[in-house]
Amino acid sequence: MWRQGLAISILLACGVATFVMSMSTMLSLKRSMNQYYSDSHFGDVFVSMTRAPSELANRMKEIPGVARVETRIVQNIILDVPQMSEPASCRLVSINPEAGSSLNSVTLIRGRLPNPTGQVEVIASEQFADAHGFQPGDQLSAIMGGRKERLRIVGIGMSPEFIYVTQPGLLLTDNRRYGVLWMPRRQLEAAFNMEGAFNDAVMTLRSRASVKNVLFRADQLTERYGGVGAYDRSDQPSHHRLADEMHQTGSMAFVTPSIFLAVATFLFNLVFSRMVHQQQEQIATLRAFGYRQREIGMYYMKLVITLILLGSLIGFLLSLPMSWWMTNQYARFFRFPTVLYEFARTEAVLASLISFVAAFAGSFSSIRRASRLPPAVSMRPEAPNADRASIVKRLGLEMYLSPIGRMIVRRLETNKRSTAFSVLGMAMGLSVLVLGSFFQDTINYVTEVQFERTQRQDVMLTFYETASAQSQHDILHLPGVTRAEYFRTVPVRLRQGSKEHRLELMGLEEQAELFRVLDDAERQVPFPSIRALTISQKLAEILDVVTGDKVTVEVLDGKRQRLTVPIARVFPDYATPGAYMNRHELHLLMQEGERLSGAFIEVDPRRLDELYAQVKETPAIAGILDKNAAHKNFVKTVSENTFVMRMVNYAFASIIAFGVIYNCALITLAERSRDLATLRVMGFKRREISTVLLGELAIITLLSVPIGLPIGCGFAFVATLALDTETHRFPFVVSRATFAGATTILISSAIVSSLVVRRMLDKLDLIAVLKVKE
Amino acid sequence: MTARETKISTSIDSGVAFDRLFQARGLTKVYRMGEVDVHALRGVDIDLFPGEFIVILGPSGSGKSTLLNILGGLDVPTEGQVKYSDHDLTNADEEELTQYRREHVGFVFQFYNLIAGLTAIENVALVADIAPDPLDPEEALRLVGLADRQNHYPSQLSGGEQQRVAIARAIGKRPDVLLCDEPTGALDVKTGIVVLDAIARINQELGTLTAVITHNASIADLADRVVYLSDGCIVEIKQNTNKKTAADLVW
Description:
The structure holds 2 protein chains of 2 kinds.
Chain A: H1 2-39, E1 45-53, H2 56-61, E2 66-72, E3 74-80, E4 88-95, E5 107-111, E6 121-125, H3 126-132, E7 139-144, E8 147-158, E9 178-184, H4 185-192, E10 197-205, H5 211-223, E11 231-232, H6 237-278, H7 280-289, H8 293-334, H9 345-372, H10 375-379, H11 391-394, H12 403-414, H13 416-437, H14 439-454, E12 459-467, H15 470-476, E13 481-496, E14 499-508, E15 533-536, H16 537-543, E16 550-555, E17 562-571, E18 579-582, H17 583-589, E19 596-603, H18 608-616, E20 621-626, H19 627-682, H20 686-722, H21 736-762, H22 766-771
Parallel strand pairs in A: 4-9, 6-8, 14-18, 15-17
Antiparallel strand pairs in A: 1-10, 1-11, 2-10, 3-4, 3-7, 5-8, 6-9, 7-8, 12-19, 12-20, 13-14, 13-16, 13-19, 15-18, 16-17
Helix pairs in contact in A: 1-6, 1-8, 1-9, 1-19, 6-9, 6-13, 6-19, 6-20, 8-9, 8-19, 12-13, 12-20, 13-19, 13-20, 13-21, 14-19, 19-20, 19-21, 20-21
Chain B: H1 3-14, E1 22-33, E2 36-48, E3 53-57, H2 64-71, E4 79-84, E5 87-88, H3 94-104, E6 105-108, H4 120-128, H5 137-143, H6 159-171, E7 177-181, H7 189-206, E8 209-214, E9 225-230, E10 233-239
Parallel strand pairs in B: 3-8, 3-9, 6-7, 7-8
Antiparallel strand pairs in B: 1-2, 1-4, 4-5, 9-10
């Protein structure tokens, strides 16, 4: 009895623990993030432009609601990192080392601030430095403003602005090939001929300022200086990614544990009601003695309360160290300098309350049913329904069964309720295993579509500013290039009614081969020469449009055209919302000649190093991205981000599955012990009677598989819906390997439980069992 | 040596030593119940012979069931010796005891212990699986007068019928010994008589050594020999010269 009680409590504890742990982790991460943002004066509004005079800052300060304005110079450059054949690109951001606290301030981790005079000194971003093992004192060379410069790293730092560093035009983070360097403003001004000017501004707002109004005014002010549209923190790339990752982690931290908690509570009820059912006879005896229904009910209620309290307590105790550990894991992943831990008290109480309510609701009916039965009825054993032939009999299989075989089958069929409970319980165990492990399949699928079927280039190049048609010739003459396809990207704001979204509209060849957009059936979507957009499913949802609808395109660059364009197609995608059109149509729309933003190229792998060396010396190329490296990096990032959560989920799922099966085995043993003892007395050997028990468990386990897997898929589907965020969408994919893995764990749990129960069976006191009236 | 002990040893010595089936000497069984040692048997000597019908009488706690369990290979004595034919049951391990029960012993308990999910005939057929020379299950049921109820489940049978199915199951493997622990304990007089009649008939028709435990003294009239137990000791073994049939029993 205590074994069963403990097993039930542990089931519940797993549900409570995952739930509370996840909630505490998310709470702590949010707190840590907010603290970091506020400590480092992270901006509220951001705006970039080509070049604006310094006086513009004063006018920005006058925008109602703006508290502080800070102007900067930001440039992308190509770096030559020693011991790295391929070129790295980086974002150079100006700082004023002599000024006090600044917006988006850089936290120095090691080294010192750069001197504004003498040799150019820089602070390298932590991720970039870590990826290369840079230390203060190391040197880099870079092409800056058409000249080769030597940069000396004097410090390693971090900033809330670059928790995620994403190369422009790319969705991916690659800390080895793209990083951030902070450099004294005066030297940046000199290198890029920006004296008395700036090209980037950060603003903080007063409380209750109208963000929309500030954005509008900032756009107005920067328009004539080549402003590409102001955006608030929610669109700031790093924060956007971070918020998205946190949201995703949060969803994972909410959905899966919620399902776990629900399943655990459900199983608690299932197991508990079976336990009550099993004690029907004792209840009948008590009733026969004159105990009232209420008194019996109270006894069981007390038992429920004790088990839930025990389960919750174990759950809380488990969740404390785990959430602390998990928060630290994620804080390290997100690079928050300090971790503020917080235990999700409210959620903990909530989890307990949910279990209480659900357990009461669930067990109430079984207690009522048991205590209401007239004593005489519950003292009689359940009779098989003699009028209806069993399924096995109807199938004509019964004659092939030995009496022991019939015993197994008949009992499973007679005690339909118990059998159904056991099968359902195990099915639930199996389903949480699927839920706990399917995520890797989804990631694999997305990765494959994204990196193998959509992106087929080897390298992607981005140009400093747009390049002319002439540069196509230059690209084809770069070493090793066997094929090139050019693209044009334009910053735009798409509007439909009150919905809007800011993104880079990409113009591609009609039948682009190296970068393909695929439809549902994974067929290539062409971009015919018509003025129409092909947008991703996610973007269609954001703008609330379908194929055939029209959207307003506001170009945030050049002549700032504003026109209405129809949606030609919507395609499924799993990354950032995207919009595409025919490149030549985009040039027409921009009222420009053939201006190119970059190229997708296919390279002879043997000549890759040569290409890299050449690119390092080519000032017109601002960025280079090796797809294979990005692919590896993506897998690593996503795996790292989800690893902890996945492992914890999987571990809990395994415990839950084991708990259920173990309970089933215990109950089966309890219900069967009399029959088994009888067989032993008759001279059946241990091995022979264990076939009865193990056979029954085996059948239950096998029956649960076809039920549990679909339920697991259902849970997984719900989880993919919850994980749907703006930067990542997760298709519902569950592989055979996941099914096989989950089933293997289920079967292993069943085997281990069976062995435990078999050992108990060996210790069964034959005489004592048989001397008691049934 | 007291007069009574002399009498017991005489009865043993007068038995035909070479064909006795059981030989028990100095059987002692001590159960440890927490701090207390409970002496269930205190040096019991007894011989049982093929084909005889023994009734073991005694009040609750006198050691009847313990004796029967030891004879049936469900338990082993703490001290003393027990032999079945040429098997030494005293030092037999679990495996050997199981083998012994499998080959030689049929049990009937107060609570019939039928498998609820199997019909009468299937309950009987269970033993056919493990016995080398089993009785046809239908024949076994016929012997207990239940040939026409063979396809009924236990819950569809009365207590007496269930007990008779239990008897049919016990004899299904043609055991050499049939051990019955309070077989009529849960039955009314009329039903009890039917059950006892079945047991007596088995004893006669199959020649199975039958030992019945009871605290109902009138059942002793069915026996060839009656063993009286009290406080773990055999107080008397009596030959029954006036053997009655079950139908003639009065209690």
